[in-house]
Automatic annotation (TrEMBL):
GO terms for cellular component: plasma membrane. The keyword ATP-binding applies. Part of the ABC transporter FtsEX involved in cellular division. Important for assembly or stability of the septal ring. GO terms for molecular function: ATP binding; ATP hydrolysis activity; transmembrane transporter activity. The keyword Glycoprotein does not apply. Keywords: ATP-binding, Nucleotide-binding. It holds the Pfam family ABC_tran. Residues 12-232 form the ABC transporter domain. Belongs to the ABC transporter superfamily. PANTHER family: CELL DIVISION ATP-BINDING PROTEIN FTSE, IMPORT ATP-BINDING PROTEIN. The lineage of its organism: Bacteria, Pseudomonadati, Bacteroidota, Flavobacteriia, Flavobacteriales. This is Cell division ATP-binding protein FtsE.
Amino acid sequence: MSTFITMGESILKLKDVAVFQAENLVLNDISLEIKKGEFVYLIGKTGSGKSSFMKMLYGDLPLKQGDGTIVDFDLKTLRERDIPYLRRKLGVVFQDFKLLPDRNINNNLLFVLKATGWKDKSKMDAKIEEVLGKVDMKTKGFKFPHELSGGEQQRIAIARALLNDPELILADEPTGNLDPQTSVEVMKVLQDINKTGRTILMATHDYALILKYPSKTLKCDGNKVFEVIQRAV
């Protein structure tokens, strides 16, 4: 059973971890810790292994070597049937939004709640209103994804990630498809969510955002993931 994590406790801990895509070694010898409430960047060039690293954290790639725990789940012993339960405690935000084009925003969010076991319609409606409020999109519930701008769609994707009150949000290049101004707006939303005590790990290659909003930074480079110390530029 999950235990409640208090502020400052580890929410992600990896020791001597290797990440494989099929039989190919992508990353090796990773030991790191992220504590509850932190905002952490994951940087690195395209092809450096950032996405593979993220996939391992949310159960898309198995942990074959080393030890790892995330939101109280042991990644080494994670079984296929445990993955939906892991993902209820994680919010995942993708670069390409992954909204369902054939239904409006309210029904996109309703779909996720039903898929994760919610039954009470009034509670679902209240939850949808709450998360849309958090990303300043309360009036857009009846719009379809194609009627929204890229920035608005990403806000909805963040709202979707918040539906099950995740302990950790994994954001994989959430500003990758957005212009600089919109990227800043989405970043402010993530910062506000972090200020409420939620932990965020954000993969990005947008160094301008990192300079504007400095925080703990991990780097993928040379098959390794390591913390980099930021210096004033």
